[in-house]
Design brief:
57 residues, mainly alpha, globular, single chain, 0% strand, 68% helix
Amino acid sequence: MRHYTTEQLLAVMQDRRYPPLLRVAALRWLIHWAPLDITKGAPYLQRRRYVRQHYGV
């Protein structure tokens, strides 16, 4: 998943035909690749909330 673009990761997150573990992995990579202005240097769980809110997933 590390070679996926942000758009591809978002597509995996939003498509219900993918297994839940794959969608969770896509979310982890979105959190990892999110810019600092989105995550604000917060701890992981807060970064996850910021990323989900920013991308609307």
